[in-house]
Amino acid sequence: MMSPKPSASTAAEGGGIPSNFRSTPTARSTPLQVIHILGNFVRIWSVYSLYSYLSSSRDSIVGFIFSCLVPASVIFLVLQKPWKGRPLPNSQVVPTVINGGILALYFVLWGKGLLACGPLVSLLAEYSGAVLGVLSAALYGRKANIWKKIGGLSAMMLSYYLLSNGWATRTNSPLYSFGGEPLEKETQITGMKEMVVPITAGVLSALRRVLARRVSLKNQLKRRLHAITFASATCFLFPFAMWDTILGSASDSIVKVQLPSWAYLSTVLFGIVLIFYVDNIAEEKLHLVFSSPRYLMVSTGCIIVLEIYYKMDFSLLGFLLCSLILGFGIFEATSLERSKKSPLEANELSNGSFHNHLPISALPS
Fold first, then answer.
1. For 20, which of 4, 191, 269, 364 is 20 to 30 Å away at the CA?
2. Angle at CA of residue 21, ends 26 and 76, nearest 5°
3. Which of 30-44, 49-63, 168-182 has the lowest mean pLDDT?
């Protein structure tokens, strides 16, 4: 009896793609690739705008994130209308609500990491979710593959160590940096202690995507549950935002960030709403998932352009070195396990796909 071919839903969170999805890009996919690049560019642009705003103001991270999640959750609810269609069972709604708590914690840690480490480090730290590939290999992989993934994890940690020591900044990088114009603000060495916050946020982001795929295998169902996830995250953050305001540590912060500033609008529209649909297009049409070397390559190009545009403390060669090491580590940590005896099984043991080996009940359409 022939074994069924792996479906698109078994694609790994960290970049492992079934072999039947690996095809040469055609002219038909070119517009989608342009949409993916532009979508990521405006999202990363919103991150730099948000960093400029937060670093020059005293607004609370929790208050700002909450004020962004409120309109974003409303937009998702209006567009997806999760209350319509076949009723969702508790077996899907309850994990989705819990996933909203993970999303809320991710946003708070990500915002604090952005303010402490800067946009460049925070954006690269988002790819730390590829560590789930090592966990997948440890649970379901073979010994040889485990060591390969551990080697990839070591390369990722080396890249983050170099970033924490300022190798991507002109001030602290030992490599020659192009450009001799004066800097508006020099960057202090971050340190691995501060790096823990954005790295943890990256792992939580990957875990959130894994849990979302665990309960939603169909695209339409995935979007409906995504709207519930954001509404849940908003509810989780509400008491903390109110407590922050009551204590006076962020007086009127929630009111102030409602002003139609570019940082606020771009975070809501580009950093939260648009990027969700862009990533869906990339995953469903281009078979490109987050925390993959190809995705990192797109982000790297966008970061270089915006670092130069914002005149940041930036070392091109140091940044490229850290990105190459990180990309190699992601490739090794999320690579598919190849076996001559069982090639089909090997394709299913990619990074993050351990959740697909768990028993799952039938899902409604």
1. 364
2. 90
3. 168-182
Cα-Cα-Cα-Cα torsion 333, 322, 281, 273, nearest 10 degrees, comes to 120
Q: Tokens 């020591």, residue? A: 165
Ranges of each domain in the chain: 29-124+163-282+294-315
Strand ranges (E), the chain: none
Tens-place pLDDT, residues 73-117? 999 999 999 988 888 888 888 999 999 999 999 999 999 999 999
Q: How far apart are CA 235 and CA 241, in angstroms?
A: 10
d(CA 6, CA 18): 7
236-to-82, 97, 268, 322, 341 alpha-carbon distances in Å = 19, 10, 18, 36, 48
Q: What percent of the chain has pLDDT over 90?
A: 46
Is the sign of the CA dihedral 161, 166, 167, 173 positive or negative? negative
What are the distances in angstroms from CA 110 to CA 29, 121, 139, 186, 203? 32, 11, 28, 22, 11
Q: Read off the pLDDT of residues 124-136 as tens digits, 9 standing for 90 and up.
A: 999 998 888 777 7
Could you give the CA distance from residue 187 to residue 50 in angstroms, rounded to a whole number? 17
**DSSP run (H or E) holding 61:** helix 61-80
- H/E run at residue 206: helix 192-215
- The confidence score (pLDDT) of residue 303 equals 97
DSSP code of 269?
I
